Amino acid sequence: MEKDTLQQTQTLDEMLIGQYRQYKELISENDTPHLRQIRENAFQVFEKEGFPHSGTEMWRHTDVDALTEDDYVHELKAPVVTENIEDIFQCDVHDFDTETISMLNGWYTSKTGDLKTMPDGVVVGSISAAMKAYPELFEKHYGKITGSESNGFVQINTAMMQDGVFIWVPDGVKVTKTLQIIKIINRKEQLFVQSRNLIILGKNSELSLMHCDDSVDHQASLVNTVTEFFVDENAHLELYKLQNLNDNSALINSTFIKQMANSTIKTNTLTFNCGLIRNSIHVKLDGQGAHADVLGLYLMDKEQHIDNQIRIDHNVPNCTSNELFKGILDDEASGVFNGYIYVARDAQQTNAYQNNNNIMLKSTATINTMPFLEIYADDVKCSHGATVGQLDQEAMFYIRSRGISADNARMLLLYAFAADIINEISIEPLRQRIDDMVKKRLRGELSVCEKCVLHCGTPDKEYHFDIDLSQI
Amino acid sequence: MLLNIKDLTVAINGKEIIKGLNLQVNKGEVHAIMGPNGSGKSTLAAAITGRDGYEVTKGEIWYKGQNIVGLEADERANMGIFLSFQYPVEIPGVSMTNFMRTALNAQREYRGQPNIPAGEFLKLMEEKKKMVDIHAKLTKRSVNEGFSGGEKKKNEIFQMALLEPTLAILDETDSGLDIDALRTVAKGVNELRSSENGFVVITHYQRLLEYIVPDYVHVLSDGKIVKSGTKNLALDLEEKGYEWLKEEAAV
């Protein structure tokens, strides 16, 4: 492999700008003219503004300077997988029957083709295949939900995205089997991975989706994912995000959800491990009677960093939203929670609730929690709250006075704290598995392999795939 | 002797609350400790059960032939010491059933016994629930969460019945109880009384002692036991208050 064209001593944005100019045709080979224009526009913004940095207000507490100044390999062609990929992507959530969508280093991998229609009518596949097959859906939704206010990570994703997941649930289809997107990062070099997902729920449809970010080994990576959801009238979406990457990895995750009338969504972001994570979730309530539950749990230690940026726009009347994020931070871990609720001028009868609770196990752990309400309507109910504390010493003594050791008493209290979020998982086998993972995580017993919801079976085995640069 | 407290001094944040206290409790005995507010009753309970922040600056607490000063709270519990809290703590998210099974198994492990089988544990719970007339649904809820004052106190006695301690300290178990709940709590305690265990009943009022009849009554004032006697002492206190004892002590 010719490394000189990919691995350079430039900063990441310089490298990406260079790649875009040089390989524009390759990158946009599946584009419709409409998409090509979106790409070009995003590129121009990125070229001017670059990545956010420590001086950018919204990124003040999450330092990405070191990340974007590092050297990365960025693949412009899908890897040739020499191992049986289906074997890596075995989920060991027992009794949990899911339809698996696998992504390796940001590329869609499947033995059964790039785009398939399931018996119930759901279309699942690679976004690059879907943009050719469904140009009208892309014209209508793609790049529309992200909106104009975006940052460099979203812009460069829009400019250079090549693959990701596409799911279309047509009107009236209720998907009974949970779909599971499993993204694995596995490569010897330090990778920059982008993926772009578009998920469309038609009127009166239902979808339950799991989105797992995992890494197989200890190699560093920077993953930049953008996902757009369109949830049409009276559709119902459940979204579970599981984040288990190694301590050297960074994950920038931007999720945009547009909801139409009487639709409901419930997102549950479960962060177990990663060097640095920024989850940005932006929900736009654009139809009356829509409801959003946005939940999350983060368990961080060592020098890990978690940043949850939640924005909920109440753009029309009679919508409700409920945000609850809970976190346990140990060692020198740091966290950020930014909960932004926007209520437009005519969005009367809005009911918005927001809460962020944190337990700090050591005085060296830090959290910045910032509720922010911007309300232009007068007949609304909005509440917010944030707590940062240590374990309740009264409760500790009470439990220990019954004979339970200090370690187990701490476990009981931490687990009880986390259970609020775990109990919101409505898929029972998944709830049990997460429950088990949380217990193990709190006991410090999650091994590298078990951190992953996948069961690789052979964690020491290496998977090889290379880009053939001669074809670029 | 079950409990032998010798010349005990206890300080909180450097301030002495218990100032040279002596107390002996034998198996089969019920001792009542009475005294005005701030006399050190709850501090004594905390010192015996090993609560953090209660520093024993002098003296010894002998229990079953061992000086337990310095032992952790959970170890003392495993040795058979139980505290019924004046203010039971709410623990959201931890179910009563799970809490009690964990506690019972911790104590069994300490004694070298295997974990209690699930079926046996449920049977045991049913049996003890009846003893204190506790509502069946309460054990399915989180520990003390949303319980009324009376339910919380009954729940303390329920836990005591399950764990079968050899030394039980009841810290103002009567406070906030109506007469029916008081009777139920007392009935539970009386059923648990045996020749093998001892009780230390801390209370403000003589009323509880009509139902849990003590063998000895001690009056605690300013960190010391200033008078000891039989159950009749409690009646005197009810009639005369604590002032006459202070005067007597001053003479």
Describe this structure in words.
Chain A has a domain at 12-287 and 444-471. Chain A is built from ten helices and 20 strands. Chain A has helices spanning 12-27, 33-49, 65-68, 85-88, 127-133, 135-141, 152-160, 393-400, 406-422, 428-443, and strands spanning 98-104, 107-109, 115-117, 123-126, 165-169, 178-185, 191-201, 206-215, 221-231, 236-244, 249-259, 264-273, 276-285, 291-300, 305-314, 320-329, 334-343, 350-360, 366-375, 380-389. Chain A has a ten-stranded mixed β-sheet, covered by helices on one side. A ten-stranded mixed β-sheet of chain A has the order 3-4-5-7-9-11-13-15-17-19. Residues 1-5 and 447-472 of chain A have low confidence and may be disordered. Chain B has one domain: Rossmann fold (3-Layer(aba) Sandwich), CATH 3.40.50.300. In chain B, the strands form three sheets. Chain B has a six-stranded mixed β-sheet, sandwiched between helices. In chain B, strand 11 and strand 12 (224-229) form a beta hairpin. The mean pLDDT of chain B is 92. The A-B interface holds A 392-395, 397-406, 408-409, 412-413, 415-417, 419-420 and B 49, 51-52, 72-74, 77-78, 82-83, 85, 88-89, 91-94, 99-100, 102-103, 106-107, 110, 142, 159, 163.
Summarize the structure.
The complex is a heterodimer of chains A (472) and B (251). Chain A is of the alpha/beta class and 472 residues long.
